[in-house]
Design goal:
By secondary structure, the chain is α+β, with helices and mostly antiparallel strands. It has a single domain, classed as Alpha-Beta Plaits (2-Layer Sandwich), CATH 3.30.70.100. It is built from three helices and four strands, in the order βαββααβ. The chain has helices at about 25-40, 65-70, 75-85, and strands at about 10-20, 45-50, 55-60, 85-95. A four-stranded antiparallel β-sheet has the order 2-3-1-4. Helix 1 runs antiparallel to helix 3. The protein starts with 9 loop residues before the first strand and ends in a 6-residue tail after the last strand. It comes from Marivirga lumbricoides.
Length: about 100
């Protein structure tokens, strides 16, 4: 599903990843992170796809909202498990969306 976002400007956190073979609760944690993120002030939406390389883009009102989410206690646990078990490699990019359009 494509996220419904407001008129720009807003921010996008782009999380690109390559998984390990370890599952160990990954899907459940991913679902929990989406649920928790959606409850955070400033959260605007999320889109995700995986085929070889996984890409998840979350949308946020401002940089402060992103900072608070990164520091959320349960998100920190997920980050640690990701580095320790679930990801071979990942990269996070934060960008300001200045314009969008759709069909």
């Amino acid at each position: 599903m494509i996220a419904e976002t407001p008129q720009p400007p807003y921010y996008a956190v782009i999380f690109s990843s390559i998984r390990t073979e370890v599952d160990n609760g990954y899907s459940e944690m991913a679902d929990l992170m989406v649920e928790l993120a959606s409850e955070q002030d400033g959260f605007l939406g999320i889109e995700s796809a995986r085929e070889g390389v996984g890409i998840t883009v979350s949308y946020w009102k401002d940089l402060e909202s992103i900072r608070k989410w990164k520091q959320h206690s349960e998100h920190i646990v997920a980050q640690q498990k990701g580095r320790g078990e679930w990801y071979k490699h990942y990269k996070v990019r934060i960008s300001k969306v200045e314009r969008d359009y759709e069909f």
